[in-house]
Amino acid sequence: MSKSKNFLNNLIKTLGFGSAKEGHNEEDLERIAQQEQKVFPFETLVAATKDFHPSNKLGQGGFGPVYKGKLVDGREIAVKKLSQSSNQGRKEFMNEAKLLARVQHRNVVNLLGYCAHGVEKLLVYEYVINESLDKLLFKSDRRQELDWKRRFDIICGVARGLLYLHEDSHNCIIHRDIKASNILLDDKWVPKIADFGMARLYPEDQTHVNTRVAGTNGYMAPEYVMHGHLSVKADVFSYGVLVLELISGQRNSSFNLDVDALSLLDWAYKLYKKGRSLEMMDPKLASSAVTDQVAMCIQIGLLCIQGDPQLRPTMHRVVVILSKKPSNLEEPSRPGIPGSRYRRSHRPVGLSSTAGTSGESNSHTTESSFTATGTSSASLVVRDRGKRPVES
Ligand SMILES: Nc1ncnc2c1ncn2[C@@H]1O[C@H](COP(=O)(O)OP(=O)(O)OP(=O)(O)O)[C@@H](O)[C@H]1O
C-alpha cells in the first residue's frame, strides 16, 4: 500500500471512522489520494471537456491549446494541453507540476492539478470567467467598463500577485511573461496572473517557441533581451509597462499617438518631465479618475521601467507605495527600451539551466527564433526555498 493510502487509512482510523476496509474501498482511497496529490485522471478531463471538443476551446497559447471544462462536482476548469514538443519526462513533469500546484494566491490563477497520460501532459486551472485584460483594454468596446477604480484595483492586485510570486511562494518565481493577455479577470474583476511556471515545464526545449508570436509584446526588460540578465526586476519592468497601458488604454507594442515618441514609455516619460503626465490618461477615464492616484500610478510605472534595473523598485516597495496615500516619490530616470525593439541571433548569455533553460538558442539562429525564445519563456522558479530571487 502506498504511503498516501497508509496515511489516509490511519487518518480515518484516528478520526473514528472505522478501518478503510469497513467504510471505504480501495477505489475511494485511490480517489482521495489522487485529489490530495492534485492528479487528475485523464478520463475525468476527457469527460469534463467533452473529449476536448473544438467548441470548448478557449484559445491557443504558445504552450498549447486551452479548453473549458466542467467537473462532475460542478467546478468549471480550464485545461491546458501542453504541446508535445516538451521533452520533459513524465516523472519530472509530475514533480514540477506538483510544486506549481502549491502556488496559491488570490491574484494568481489557481493550478488545481495536472495529468500525464501517455505522451499527453495537461494542466488543470480554475476557470476565470471575465476574459483576459488585453481583450477588454485593447480590443473591445467594453473598455469603458474598466473605470478608474477597476484599473486601480488591477494595478494593486497584479502587484500583490507578483510580490507573492517573487517573495512569498514556496519557491521564488520570476514570471518572465507579465503582459495584459496573461492577466485574467474573475467575476468580481479580481486580476489573476496566468501562465506562471512554464519554464519549469519546458526545460531545454525550444520547439514550442516557434508557435509563439515573435518579439511583439513590448514588455521585456532590455537587460534581459540584450544580455540575458534575468532577475525579479525584469518582471518589475513588465509590470511598469502594464501599468502605463492600463492608464493610457494604449498598447505599448503598437503605440502611435505621438510621432515624437519612440514608444508609450517614451511618451509617458516626456509628458512627465514637462509636468503634463495626466495628459496620457485614457479619455475613457475622464469621469472616474482620481487624479492624485493616477499621477502616483504613472510615477510608479515610470519608476518600474527605468533603464537601470537597480533603480527599479521591488514589488514589495510597489505594494507599500500603492497602499499609502499618494506621497512624494523619487524622480524616475529615463525608461529602458523594451525588448521587442531588439532582436538578436545569439543565445543570451547568463541563461543557465537553473535560470530557466528556455532561453537557450537552437539551430535556428534567425532573428525571429531568438525573439520567440526570448519572449516565450513564461516563467522561472528559483529552486532554493526561502532564498530570495537574485536581484541585479
Ligand atoms: N484559467 C483560465 N480561465 C479562463 N480562460 C483561460 C484560462 N487560461 C487561459 N485561458 C484562455 O485561453 C486562451 C489561451 O491562453 P494561454 O495562456 O495559453 O495563451 P495566451 O495568453 O493567449 O498566449 P501566450 O501563450 O503567448 O501567453 C486565452 O484566450 C485565455 O484567455
UniProtKB/TrEMBL annotation:
Q: Which domain of life does this protein belong to?
A: Eukaryota
What the entry lists under Gene3D superfamilies is as follows: Phosphorylase Kinase, domain 1 (3.30.200.20), Transferase(Phosphotransferase) domain 1 (1.10.510.10)
| Biased composition, class Polar residues, residue ranges | 351-364
Give start-end ranges for the coiled-coil region(s).
none
Q: Which SUPFAM superfamilies match?
A: Protein kinase-like (PK-like)
Q: Which CDD domains match?
A: STKc_IRAK
Q: Where is the composition biased (Basic and acidic residues)?
A: 382-392
Q: InterPro entries, from UniProt? A: CR_Ser/Thr_kinase, Kinase-like_dom_sf, Prot_kinase_dom, Ser-Thr/Tyr_kinase_cat_dom, Ser/Thr_kinase_AS
Residue ranges occupied by any Protein kinase domain in the UniProt entry: 52-328
Q: Which GO terms describe its molecular function?
A: ATP binding; protein kinase activity
Region listing for Disordered, in residue ranges: 327-392
Ranges of Low complexity composition bias in the record: 365-379
Query: What's in the keyword line of the UniProt record?
Result: ATP-binding, Kinase, Nucleotide-binding, Transferase
| UniProt name for this protein | Protein kinase domain-containing protein
